Amino acid sequence: MNVNMRCATIVAFPLLAFTGCQDARAPIGDTPAPPVPSDKFLVAIPAHWHVALSTDTGQMKLVAYVPEGQSREHWTDMLSVIVYDRSVYTDLNDVANALGATYNNICTIPAIVAQPDMTNDNGSPASLQIARCGRGREGHAHIVVQKAIVGSDGFHIVKRAWTLPPVADSNSVAIPEAEMKAATAELNEVHLCDTAQHSAACPNAGEAQPTTR
């Protein structure tokens, strides 16, 4: 079945905070223009999903989406789009280790964290990784598929996560095969493009375009 999607173009760059007083006598020409962001994270958001959480710490910018009828506190399916500043991670192995540490922390039984599948996205290093937890601290099982891409401005990550009834073995945590294949295919369509490079031109840069899956 085709599912209508809307394409959310997320401009990824560190947010700059300016403080202090400006000298009113300084010529306008001496005021530097803000840098133009080059990385654009292209993520398809399912139609009828809404923002459950949006936060910006300065080093991390996160927007999480859930289906209609679900919320930040009560959800079974979530799509998170995250951008980390370069100062947070060193490389994709560091990103993978962080996912493992998170699942080992939230899981009350041994978590299963797969090694990342290292790939390439428009010339940028990328990875795909799956983690499972049979029972979390709040009593639910969890499974997540994560795609990470190294951009010129930071680390760009998209996660599709589910909560499920708890099980005794994290290896047993699973969603229907067709749903997992569809989610993985959608993550494979997540791309990072650099407007500063012709070889990675951004389609419809800055525009939200409807697509059909």
What descriptive keywords fit this protein?
12 strands, four-stranded antiparallel sheet, 213 residues, disordered N terminus, globular, single chain, disordered C terminus, eight-stranded antiparallel sheet, mainly beta, 2 helices
Shape: globular
**Oligomer type:** single chain
Q: How many distinct beta strands?
A: 12
**Low-confidence residue ranges:** 1-29, 205-213
- What composes the largest sheet? 8 strands, antiparallel
What class do helices, strands and sheet pairing give?
Answer: mainly beta
**Strand coverage percent:** 35-45%
Helix/strand order: EEEEEHEEEEEHEE
Helicity, in percent?
A: 10-25%
Average predicted confidence as pLDDT: 80
Distance from N terminus to C terminus (CA atoms, Å) equals: 8 Å
Radius of gyration: 19 Å
Number of helices: 2
Short description:
The chain is mainly beta and about 210 residues long. The protein has helices at about 90-105, 175-190, and strands spanning about 5-10, 40-45, 50-55, 60-65, 75-85, 110-115, 115-120, 125-135, 140-150, 155-165, 190-195, 210.
How would you characterize this protein structure?
There is one protein chain. By secondary structure, the protein is mostly beta strands. Helix content is 13%, strand content 40%. The protein has helices at 92-106, 177-188; strands at 4-11, 39-46, 49-56, 60-67, 77-85, 112-113, 117-121, 124-133, 141-150, 154-164, 191-194, 210-212. Strands 3, 4, 5, 6, 7, 8, 9 and 10 form an eight-stranded antiparallel sheet that branches. The chain is globular, with a radius of gyration of 19 Å.
